[in-house]
Each structure stands twice: as structure tokens, then as C-alpha cells.
Amino acid sequence: MAQTERPKGGGSQRILQGANLALYTLIGIAIIVLVNWFVSRHDKRWDLTPNQEYSLSPQSKKILKDLKQNVTIYAFDRKEAFGQRRDLLGEYSAASPRVTVRYVDPNAQPALARQYGIQDYGTIEVVSGTRHFQAQSTTEEGVTNALIRVLMGEKTVYFMQGHGERNIDGTSRDGFQDLKTELSNESYKVKTLMLLQKDEIPADCEVLVIAGPQHDYLPPEISTISKYLEGGGRALIMLDAGVSTPNLNKMLAGWGVTVRDDLVVDLNPVARLLGTTPVMPLIVKYGNNPIVEPLQNPRTVATLFPLTRSFAISSDFKGGATPEMLCQTSDASFGVEGYKPSMHEISARPGPNDVKGPLTVAVADTLGSTDGKKTQGRIVVTGTSLVGANAYLGFQANKDLVLNMVNWLSAEESLISIRPKPKEQQTLDLNQRQMGRLLYLGVFGLPLAIILVGAGVWWRRRR
């Protein structure tokens, strides 16, 4: 029986193939080693998550970049749980040479745990000098808020009451409880003030907030507020459309801010894609004040001004005042003149007396001191108080805008930024039919395909 002659050089060919395989394997290992070496030397990371879950927010980065004192972050936990904290806390130490992170097992160092009153595993304590504060959570927001509290101490914000202003403890859609919580997180102590009971602004008032008064202030109250501001005080004044406040409007007009008696309607079609209505202007155009600078760099983010009135910035004002536009509506907007809350229908087109857009709906104003010695007063005025209400504070950049206003007024410019956003849950919703397809393809189809491809390769080699 004749035997099939094997091709010459078969052995050397197999040796060559083996050598190539070994060479490619070594090259692959070398590439992996070089990449790991480069990453370890340069600490380069790429965060590809949709919400940048593993990167610090602009606010955290800005605070860390501007640090002028050393900070130690203690992570108290079991030794085996230290790895859960390193991803986040490592970002803080990498962002600033002034930050040191220490991982402490409270069982191994009970004296240190007792010094900071540590009760539970997983507690983070931020320390700088003699100040220390315990983070309310192990998230970036919790750690950064603790850092802010340690760096700036606690300042007091007073909310005016007695004229139908927003309820700072209100949990309804138009309440201000969420804003109160956010201010507390940024190291502000929130109190209320009624000038009808005590006709003076407390000495510890860092920022006075007038949020949505439904009735005008009396002349003696206006005099007290005006004196406070001209003496270097700071105020956030949030008005509402259709509410008559002639005394308050007259005070603002003296500093170049004319309050219009209108309701802004914005017909911008892009805003409709986000589910808004024409009486809820979507703001994407901002001024040059530090308050709004983070909202337009590197990309513009939107804010929402529901049921807002507009302002005119005039040149007829007291010496030293410098009003400037903060937020402006689109060219497709107009102000319905003479608006009253009792009006059931709002025209979809501007009338002959209506003001054409774009319209200014928020203003920042710096006042010259009256005696030349005190610090300059600052005012921020918005055309709606709903921008800070529970129902709208969480809309895109509304929270950043309102908190930036308070930070600018209190001269805490280092806190002006875009804050940490909550992590988004990435879910995949499948119906029963899609789940069935996934089962057959993943459990049966893919393994079967691999087997068939392998069998085909084996059969070709046999031939």
C-alpha cells in the first residue's frame, strides 16, 4: 500500500510557528508591562463613565487647587475595606500636594479613633490644623462638603420672613427645604429674620435672602435693608412675577436695577425638547460675573427660570453701583406687560406694549461704600424665586447657580463651581421577548458558534 509522503521541512515549519508564537507572546507581555509602568509613573487614568463617576467634580478640583493649608483625610475602616476608599480618596491626594490620606483601622489605633469621636466603620474625617469635621457620607459630595466646612468655618445666612416669603422648611414643590439643606452642606448656618420684630440686621449676617415676598416691605424696613447694603452688606433678592413691591423696586432702581411689571414668555423651540413650557424660560446665555462663569466653561449648561419677570439695567443710579447681567433669555422671548396672576391665558405672540427679547432675568450689582472705609455691598436679584424651590433646584445647573450666588455674595469665590453630581444608575430594560433572545444567543448561540468554528478549523487541518 502506498504511503502519503509528508512534505519536507514540516518539522522546521512547526518550530518557526512556535518561535513566532513565543515572540508575539513576549511582545504582548512587554507592552502590558510598559503600559503599567507608564500609568504608575504618570498616574494617568481615563474615566469613561457617562457621569464621570470616578473623577472629581470641577468644584472639588478648584478647592484642592487653591488650598493654602495642609489637610489630612482619615478613612477609619477595617483593614480589608481600605480598597473601597482608595479610588475616591486617592483623587484628592493626587489633585493637591497639600492633601494627605491616612487609612486607619480604629481597632489598631483606638486612641486616634477616640480623638475624633469615631463610632462606626467607614467614617471619613477631614482635618486641617485644629479644625476637623466628619463627612456625612463617603461620596465625593460628603467629603468635599466636609472639606469646605473645615476650610471656611460656618457663616450665617438669614432668610427674611413676615411678608409671605418662601418657607425654608417647606417640603412642598415651592418650598425651600432642599436649598436650606444644600446651604448647610456648604457650611452655612441658616436662620430666619423678621424686621417687624427687631428693626436691625444681625451683626453675624453674612448674606440676607429675600425669597419671593408676596407683600411689599414697609419704609422703615426698606431703610434698614438699604443702610445694611450700603454699609457693605450682601443680599440675594428673589422676586416673583405679578407681585407688587413698589418700595423694594424703588430701592433697587436707585442702584441701577429697574424691575419690570411683566411675565417672560420664551418661544425657543429647543426648550420644548426638555419638557418646559413658554413661561419657563431655559437659560443658556450668561454674563461675565464669576457666579455664572462655570456654567459656560467648557460647555454651556442650562438653568430654568419658571414664571419670571425681567429687569432693565439703567444708567440712572447712585454713584458707585455697577449692575451687570447674569442670565438672559433667547431672542425668541418677550415680556407680557402688566401681568397679573389672575390672568388665565397668556398671549403666544408679543403685543404692541410687550418688551422684546432677549431679556435679563438675573442681575448682579456691586455697591460703593458710603464712607469709603467699609467693604462694598453686593446684591443679586432674580426675576423668580422658583429657581431655588424644591421642584426646580435639581434641574441641571439651578443648584449650582443659586449656591454660586450665595458664595459670591459671601466672598467665598473659591466655592463657585459645578458641584458633584449624584451617580447615575445604568440600567438595561428588556421585555420578555428580548430576554428570551438574549438567553438563546448568549447561553446557547455563542457557545455553539464557537464549537462550529473550532470543528471547521479542525476539519480543514485534517484534510
Describe the structure.
With about 475 residues, the protein is an alpha/beta fold. The chain folds into 2 domains: about 90 residues, Glutaredoxin (3-Layer(aba) Sandwich); about 260 residues, Class I glutamine amidotransferase (GATase) domain (Rossmann fold, 3-Layer(aba) Sandwich). It is about 35% helix and about 20% strand. It is built from 12 helices and 19 strands. The strands form 5 sheets. It has an 8-stranded mixed β-sheet with strand order 6-5-7-8-19-18-15-12. The mean pLDDT is about 85.
Biggest beta sheet summary: 8 strands, mixed
* Strand residue percentage: 15-25%
Radius of gyration: 31 Å
* Structural domain count: 2
**Level of helix content?**
25-40%
Classify the fold: give the CATH topology of the largest domain.
Answer: Rossmann fold
What's the helix and strand layout?
Layout: H1 10-42, H2 58-65, E1 71-76, H3 83-95, E2 99-104, H4 110-115, E3 123-128, E4 131-134, H5 140-152, E5 155-160, H6 177-185, E6 188-193, E7 205-211, H7 219-230, E8 234-238, H8 246-253, E9 257-259, E10 262-266, H9 269-272, E11 282-283, E12 285-286, H10 293-296, E13 303-304, E14 311-313, E15 322-328, E16 333-337, E17 355-356, E18 360-367, E19 377-382, H11 398-409, H12 432-462
